[in-house]
């Protein structure tokens, strides 16, 4: 039989391997293997968390022994499943996105948590270790163990929402920095960085809206084994997801403002350079015309044989240039 313990140390539970934790008010928390769980009969009031690695060969056999529908088993073991919630008579299959870190690619470095939850069990299937599950395991030692699968599910979705909040804070800091650079110092940051922030905000927003939709579908189902307190906790997770989605929308809008400011500053600088070039042309174009006219190689050019003609013409050109410069400044061309 599995060893009984009143407290499971989170450091001893490794998320890179499958395990089962059975919860009991009388016997506390006990860690089982899948084979040990097969030989164990749950007592009244007991429930368990099964944490399965998707690539493990025995998963399908284990899930079939739980008498789950084949479609639910296929979705639990599928690698890519769109976030959603399927309600059954006894429980629900839920696929949600979860972040371990800030996404770096277009698709986002997201993990998918596929969960089956009913009155007696919560089965989680994963590809890679999730920080949300690590937070869930650590919560067993920081506070009282969950008293039902409803509380276990509520803690999981709250952990996913908390992890997403930390991702949102990173994006908030990055957009704040970009605003400081553009609006305060006037420097132009790399536009690729701004585009990257907008893309990440879009990914997180889309993920949170899908997460919220799955929670709403779960929440409206009136399962008898979900009490009012845990319904409120699941609703709180949904509220956090909605708030994160709104923050991501705000970040995208702020990114648009920053982009518009960059474009405005660039356009303003271009216009200023064009005005300077126009002012220079106003001064030197008449002078170029005069020198070009005097430089034509035909007879009759005034002063061609006068030794002081060049000095007189040069002084006359300087005078014209000064007059044109004063006129340009008077009309505030630049």
UniProtKB/TrEMBL annotation:
SUPFAM superfamilies: CorA soluble domain-like (SSF143865), Magnesium transport protein CorA, transmembrane region (SSF144083)
Subcellular location: Cell membrane
Primary localization: membrane
GO cellular component: plasma membrane
Gene3D superfamilies the UniProt entry points to: CorA soluble domain-like, Magnesium transport protein CorA, transmembrane region
Keywords, comma-separated and alphabetical: Cell inner membrane, Cell membrane, Ion transport, Membrane, Transmembrane, Transmembrane helix, Transport, Zinc
Membrane association type: Multi-pass membrane protein
Keyword DNA repair: no
TM region positions: 273-296, 308-331
Example GO molecular function: magnesium ion transmembrane transporter activity
PANTHER family to which the protein is assigned, alphabetical: CORA FAMILY METAL ION TRANSPORTER (EUROFUNG), ZINC TRANSPORT PROTEIN ZNTB
Family: Belongs to the CorA metal ion transporter (MIT) (TC 1.A.35) family.
Protein name: Zinc transport protein ZntB
Naturally occurring in which organism (per UniProt): Pseudovibrio axinellae
Record lineage: Bacteria, Pseudomonadati, Pseudomonadota, Alphaproteobacteria, Hyphomicrobiales
Gene: zntB
